[in-house]
């Protein structure tokens, strides 16, 4: 089954954030070494004198990747919708990673505001990638609002804790087999990414785990390999675990020696 | 007149948003604008007049996760 991202099929299922790298050159090296096709970007106030945003945009353009702008830091529906409108104009894409933050400690999404903002944006032609939780009811509402992709968190943003609710993520996958699902946020190690892909998720999105690694470019490649391995494992239909041992070496024909 | 640009007070001569942006030094820059919290699309800048005390947000691409 092909579950695409609003008509776009990705060869590389690792989506990478662009923040917190030691330097722009290291960000570029990480994107290139991992063969990343989609990066997340954001919007901030621009000083006419410094023009930092213009230099960043030149770097991203040179990488030749697709961008997924976010509404990071937005706490209200109005803020998120206005930010999305500005992002569409600046980046020239209908894609938007929709974040409506509800709690400052955990950066947990405000699911009520998220659904409301998603309804407004999809009506206006946006292709919304909502940053959500594994909540099944919220997922259903987001799909009703017109979202074709869902991005549940693995753990709080930047925590590196991995898949905090393995059962919930598995349940979400089982409930919505036709929907493209991306584990977004909270992954710390490549094994977390592999686990998400083994569950049948279509991609993972991460930032801090690569940007804050001692060698970001090497870690980006490690994540890319883990994502490939996890996807291949899912497609290969893994065995079911069992409680009791089962000998892998055939016992028939074994010599009787004692 | 005085406007609030990205949270700081600024004196500007022009009234039209596109001319205010030029006056402030944003010509040619890839930016989006909002006036008093509402998005103003690029084609609408020429028809948008700023008034004394208006809050103008000028934003540009930035690293994000």
Give a quick rundown of the structure.
The complex is a heterodimer of chains A (258) and B (65). Chain A has 258 residues and is α/β, with parallel strands linked by helices. Chain A has 9 helices and 8 strands.
Outline the structure in words:
The complex is a heterodimer of chains A (258) and B (65). Chain A is of the alpha/beta class. Chain A is built from 9 helices and 8 strands. Chain B has one helix spanning 17-24, and strands at residues 2-5, 8-11, 32-35, 38-40, 55-63. Chain B is mostly beta strands. In chain B, a hairpin with a 2-residue loop joins β3 (32-35) and β4. Chain B has a 5-stranded mixed sheet with strand order 2-1-5-3-4, with no helix packed on it. Chain B is built from 1 helix and 5 strands, in the order ββαβββ. At the A-B interface, β2, α2 and α3 of A face β3 and β5 of B. β2 of chain A pairs antiparallel with β5 (55-63) of chain B, so a sheet runs across the interface.
Residue share in helix of chain A: 25-40%
Query: What is the overall silhouette of chain B?
Result: globular
Largest sheet of chain B: 5 strands, mixed
Q: How many β-strand runs of chain B?
A: 5
Query: Any low-confidence stretches of chain A, pLDDT <50, length ≥5?
Result: none
As laid out across the biggest beta sheet of chain B, the strand order is 2-1-5-3-4
Q: How big a fraction of the residues of chain A is strand?
A: 15-25%
